[in-house]
Amino acid sequence: MYKQLIRPVLFSFDPEKVHHFTFSFLRFSQKMPFVKSILKSKFDVTHPALEREVFGLKFKNPVGLAAGFDKDAKLYKELSNLGFGFIEIGTLTPKAQPGNPKKRLFRLKADQAIINRMGFNNGGVVEAVERLKKNTDVLIGGNIGKNKVTPNEEAVEDYKICFDALFDYVDYFVVNVSSPNTPNLRALQDKEPLTLLLRTLMEKNSQKPSQKPILLKIAPDLTDEQLLDIIDIVSETKIDGVIATNTTIGRDDLQSEANLVKETGGLSGKPLTKRSTEVIRFLAEKSNKAFPIIGVGGIHSAKDALDKLDAGADLVQLYTGFIYEGPQLIKDINKAIIARS
């Protein structure tokens, strides 16, 4: 129904406006108990074969929503009713910021892809915390970053602010240094600044009465040498895992119109399927599966998700595939996992 009836209508309008409309619709509709009940009965799949324990957390199923969709923790409860096992909010920054100028979100329909240059638009971490205080049953990841105006040499302070503010209200943290849409942010993936950042957060973590898992989200555009550095950094800093991967700045072999392909920003969706799986396999094999991996990038079918799990991912996340395929994709993946258990 989604792909045949709903998606064609939604895709006829500006993607950012559709995003806000969808949020409003899901929030309003699920205020009616029978709608929530229908959604859960249609999409939520429960089975022992789906349950996972990863970095000390218990997941009801391994399919999560990637960061960037519910940036400000406005819809995590409603989205969890569509069958997700966990929701990652953010990227959040210490201060609210509008992000990059519009238009900044583009559909590449011929490639089943999206280009975005949103630029960490969010209402600030304090505002998100107020919403998260109401959470009682959704497993939440907190994706954190730095404000655009914060120079890289002061970036650690931004991450510390977000870490402290969110600590009591999320189940795990994701350090985002891999978005291509904040100037110079990816320079923080270099070994020296990244090691300093992660060690600082791990030290803060150790001072808490109980610790929260800290993960690093990496770009798909890293070379093999840089990926080996990531393995070393994870080992040295003793963070809990890696999310592979963020969006790509690559534009190889796209079929969409030239005016869309040339748009700057991060590319997500089907063109990323193969590369993100390659990165997962490389990290898993070269590290001898020394740390958990959340696989994300170009999952548009149950097979895509299974391929990432087979490559070494412990959990998977959806974003663009969710937009193109709808919530049925979550159910399809979970049913496929059960079928081969």
Task: Write a brief structural summary.
This protein is α/β, with parallel strands linked by helices. The protein contains 13 helices and 13 strands.
Walk me through what this model shows:
The chain is of the alpha/beta class and 341 residues long. It contains 13 helices and 13 strands. The strands form 3 sheets. The protein has an 8-stranded parallel β-barrel, surrounded by 5 helices. Helix 11 crosses helix 13 (328-339). It is globular.
Topology:
Layout: H1 2-10, H2 15-29, H3 33-43, E1 52-54, E2 57-59, E3 63-65, H4 76-80, E4 86-92, E5 105-108, E6 113-116, H5 125-132, E7 140-144, H6 155-166, E8 172-176, H7 191-206, E9 214-218, H8 224-237, E10 241-244, H9 258-261, E11 266-269, H10 273-286, E12 293-296, H11 302-311, E13 315-318, H12 320-325, H13 328-339
What radius of gyration results from the CA coordinates? Answer: 19 Å
SSE pattern: HHHEEEHEEEHEHEHEHEHEHEHEHH
* Relevant CATH superfamily: Aldolase class I
Computed structural class:
alpha/beta
Numbering strands along the chain, what is their spatial order in the largest sheet? 3-4-7-8-9-10-12-13
Instruction: List low-confidence stretches.
Output: none
- Look at the structure and give the mean pLDDT: 97
Proportion in helices? 25-40%
The rough form would be described as globular
EC number: 1.3.5.2
Domain Dihydroorotate dehydrogenase catalytic: 50-338
Pathway: Pyrimidine metabolism; UMP biosynthesis via de novo pathway; orotate from (S)-dihydroorotate (quinone route): step 1/1
Enzyme class: oxidoreductase
